[in-house]
Amino acid sequence: QKEVEQNSGPLSVPEGAIASLNCTYSDRGSQSFFWYRQYSGKSPELIMSIYSNGDKEDGRFTAQLNKASQYVSLLIRDSQPSDSATYLCAVNAGNTGFQKLVFGTGTRLLVSP
Amino acid sequence: NAGVMQNPRHLVRRRGQEARLRCSPVKGHSHVYWYRQLPEEGLKFMVYLQKENIIDESGMPKERFSAEFPKEGPSILRIQQVVRGDSAAYFCASSPGQNQETQYFGPGTRLLVL
Q1: pLDDT for res A1
Q2: How confident is the model at residue B76 (pLDDT cuts 50, 70, 90)?
Q3: Nearest CB to A92 within list B101, B107, B108
Q4: Using CA atoms in the order A32, A29, A71, A21, what is the torsion angle rounded to 10 degrees?
Q5: Does the beta-carbon distance from A103 to B43 stay under 8 Å?
Q6: Measured between alpha carbons, how far is residue B87 from residues A104, B84, B105 in Å?
């Protein structure tokens, strides 16, 4: 069974610090990886997608992928209280020609002022 | 430029009734996905549809649940004879097509079964 593992948290960081969120996945053949943010009672919102090994930066967010270690992470620089949310790691587990996302249970991030 | 639309946003049903959840994808998107999020749990894939076709329904419970995406109109997730364990948030997502994998989520329908 294909799985995605995340630490449930909460991860507490002070405002302005770097928040580091981690995710591991079991299916070595996975090719697409996504980070979503979900505020309480709201729908998931896409933050980043990453397909190749290495780093991908978008504003204050950096996604890191290491396929050999089956590990993907999300760094949030200059964390703000508005970043407080649950961060969901998702892996595309579909076979060629179709796709479905397998989600981790999410890591709750708390950014204190 | 409307995103994914779902209705109703909240739905209350008594045990044994039917629930119909509707999803209109982003304009131009031909792929629809349904996910369920139980309280304090992660999102679980249910079904992947294209217009008039079910592509992957491996996450759908074997009984009482069905989904469709007709040529015209929204995608429908139908739950017959609801039970309390069906209470959850049901999210629909859409994507443009196979080679553009990003899925955009709708606001969800919160189903409460009394």
Answers
A1: 64
A2: very high
A3: B101
A4: 40
A5: yes
A6: 20, 6, 19
